[in-house]
Amino acid sequence: MKLIAHKTGGGKDVITDFIKKLPVKEKIDGLSILEAMESNNFNVLNTKTWQGKIKEVYFYKFNRIFYIVQGEEIVYLLHACKKQKNKTENIDKQIVIKRAKELEIEIGIKIL
Predict the structure, then answer these.
(1) C-beta contacts of 94-97 below 8 A and 24+ residues apart
(2) What is the CATH number of domain 2-107?
(3) How confident is the model over 19-57, as pLDDT tens digits?
(4) pTM of the model
């Protein structure tokens, strides 16, 4: 599958940037998550539906990536963060929803 990470207006890949800043063990796990997604190996991942078509994958303790699968070929990576509590922090929730709405317009499908 092709992974398409959200990029800032300046072209910064927010998912890769988040993973690169993690401690070594977490970074390795995060990169293996991306590799499994790219190989369409979702059955080995700890995922759940978050909201609408948005899913989240957990890795190394409290880290997670929010994503959308479109068809059988593309995964859009929306946001990565460290989970602080049992539910998504409000700021992270707002970021995911904003990026999902932008993506709805860009690719023309209902996400939320």
Answers:
(1) 96/50, 96/51, 96/54, 96/66, 97/51
(2) 3.30.2310
(3) 999 999 999 999 999 999 999 999 999 999 999 999 999
(4) 0.94
